[in-house]
Amino acid sequence: MLKDIARKVQENQRLTPEEALYLFQTEDIFTLGELASLAKERRFGKRVFYVRNVHINPTNICVNRCRFCAFSRSEGQEGAYEMSPEEVLQALRQAGEFDELHMVGGLHPRWGLGHYIALLRAVREAFPSVCIKAFTATEVEYLARKEGLSLKEVLLALKEAGLGLLPGGGAEIFAPEIRARLCPEKLGAQGWLQVMRTAHQAGLKSNATMLYGHLEGPEHRVQHLQALRSLQDETQGFLAFIPLPYVNPGGAGPGGLEALRCIAVARLFLDNFPHIKAYWVMLGEKLSQLALLFGADDLEGTVVSERIAHSAGATTPQALTEDELRHLIAEAGMVPTRRDSFYRALQPQETRPLEESSA
Description:
TIM Barrel; 3-stranded parallel beta sheet; disordered C terminus
């Protein structure tokens, strides 16, 4: 079957779910990587994107208790925190130069839509040129339910206040039987997809994620990717897909080969997603470099301060400088390309990879 899949990739034909399942199970990881690299280079050549961004998590107080989440706390619990809009601005002022704010947090029981609108307006006023990527589908649905408003009403209110696009968090894994064990209180798969559909219809782009390496099997991953591909066929609203390895503080999570496999299969199966991200915060710098040879074209960004993955036990740095990101990309033989939130290049880029330009 791998020869047939290779032919389809070379001819730029769409893969079936059955072929994606085969790729999740094949032992020929090298051919898989070659095919994914071919698909990536057909779109972007040697370019690999990164963004100067800042991650802010304004609160870890959350009404849900997902099995995998080490970040959330209840009000009054040790370690619980909440940041005022002024504290968010203070953190941003200390972050240096950045083009994107990535902001997600817990489902705070006392914060309503007005709080988030005030927060967005404060950031937009203080940093008018920065794109605000904020609020997972779970947060959006929670606000709509809390306020008795439609998803569209909430999304349009947030957009008017300064929201630029949505991150892809909260998707986890769509399979109901796995979701019931992993995060039973969380917004379900159809709810997540409907938030994204509504956002896209409202003119807001978004990302999408998949959490893997916990209770799911290859068939559940394929179901997840198929649902994303179908919605993208409908809306064309997704910018990037980010496979997220489960970070298990009490034991082993997915290994490096499994991470590369998820990157590669996503590149080949999600033919209507322009960008596949290697999220270095959870993969680490070295594995993220290798992922650039397995179909990834984006290395996330500078991040500055990440709390969610590190609460679960991630041992990666909490930030990388722009120079460090550019070096990682160039060392992999790729061309570093600084971007904005919508993958538009922001400055002239070097045209040769590191080993050529340093001769």
